[in-house]
Amino acid sequence: MNATEPRCRWWPRSVRARAALAAASAAAVILVGIGWWVHHDVYRQSTQIAEEQARENLLALVDQLKEGVVPSGRSAVPYEVVATGRRTAVASGGGMEDFDPGARHVLPTPSALFAPPPNDGAEWGYTIRPLRIPVRHDHHPGNGLDLAGRTYPVLYADVRAGELGSDKAAALGVTADATLRAYVVLLPDTAEAITSTTDGLLLRAGLVGLVLIAAAAYFTVRIALRPVEAIRALTASVTASDPRERVTVPATGHEITALATTINTTLQRLDDAAARQRRFVADAAHELRSPLTTLLASLEVALAYPERTDWPATATTAARQTRRLHSLAEDLLLLARLDTRAPAADPETVDLTALASRLAEQYPLTERPLTLTCDSTAPAYARGNPDAYERLLRNLIDNAARHAAHRIQITVRNQDAWVVLTVHDDGPGVPTEDAERIFERFVRLDDARSRDRGGTGLGLAIARDLAHRHRGTLTLAPRTLGACFELRVPRASAPDEE
Question: Where in the cell is it found (predicted)?
């Protein structure tokens, strides 16, 4: 799959749209959970309210029966009063009267299914049971409430006619030994209607809320990303040849401020790198032009006056300048490889003491009478490339040999977790203000000396880059006499201990 193609085509590319969609999705999940909880809680509370109303109606029915009064058929809730020894209902209403009053009562009498409820010491008690309203041919609903064939929670309470007296029992149409039972049917219709209405309100409010949340998230992110868009537009105008533009850092102190600061730091690094590159190219061209000019002038003079030319001297000059060009080209190629920051391949364990001792013995000191010594007490192992360590140390010795008056001393010692190697010469030293500048490329402090003796000006820069590649440091240590370069690299275990 093409890396530029989105993985999900339906997923928006805009950060604003993604934020709005994510906010709406999260809000939808939260609202669904809240809606589910509200739905069940409203239904539960509505059912409790309906049960409380049914209980109050049942209490009113019981009070009327105890007074010997036949309850009226007009009721907001379905009810029926039955009695033992009586075929028809004592009273009914609220929809139960839609059954034929002259037919048998709908709900069972106390002796048919249930015993009287236990007396718990309260003034009165009631029982709630699920009962199915039977389907009968004499049922003719007139108010639109069809109870037949459905099961409802039913509240009921018993009243003994013997406790009422013969007159009240006679007024109710029951015998003195009969038991009356008052039923009140608990209809869930009200709770369901309230819950349904609440669900509708929640659904509409939720949809409106989701739209508002998505819109708020969209415009909030849009406003928040305005500084980012400004940064993007300004950064797009930056080129490698002219990275001088800088983005405006907001004063709010939020993440955009950190982003702007980071981008400005990156642009500054690019600017510094571009300046170093331009300076490096200019210096390299200048360094290459000097030996080429000398070589070309020598050859042109020899060709112009062949009979008066000292050809051995001309060949010697050409060879010397060619060697300088070759050395300069090798240094430039090495710096180019170091600038790629490629990791060192297959690092080895190198004994810097043995390396320093070998270079001290083999280093040619034919031009001037110099003494080169190596002072070390024990093997000093470090991990890295042996050729790179040799090039680093050779560059330090070359630099010391150009400036030393009589003596160069190399010391190698183990110091805690580091190997410390120093190259000290007894030359004129380096001014304190130039302690870091000498590690820059093509920097030579003694401009008066000949360029043949002064080198290319890349040795110390290459040495420091090699030190950094081996996770070490190369600095100029303070000394009262001469210059002392100190190399620190991580110490490694001996080969026989690995």
Answer: Cell membrane
Q: Give burial (CB, 10 Å; 0-12/13-18/19+) of 292.
A: middle
Distance, CA of 78 to CA of 182 (rounded, Å): 11
- What would the pLDDT profile of 386-422 be if each residue is shown by its tens digit? 988 998 999 999 889 888 888 999 999 999 999 999 9
Q: How confident is the prediction for the chain on average, in pLDDT? A: 81
Residue type at 231 in one-letter notation:
I
Q: Write the pLDDT tens digit of every residue in 150-204.
A: 888 899 999 888 888 888 888 888 888 888 999 999 888 778 888 888 889 989 9
CA dist 71 and 77 (Å) reads 13
Residue ranges of the chain whose pLDDT lies below 50: 1-6, 112-116, 118-122, 447-452
Residues 6+ apart with CB under 8 A from 452: 320, 324
pTM value? 0.50
Label residues 456-467 b or e (16+ Cβ within 10 Å = b).
bbbbbbbbbbbb
- 288 class by beta-carbon count within 10 Å (0-12 exposed, 13-18 middle, 19+ buried): middle
pLDDT at position 281 is 74
* Domains in the chain: ranges and CATH: 7-224 (no CATH), 255-337 (1.10.287.130), 346-497 (3.30.565.10)
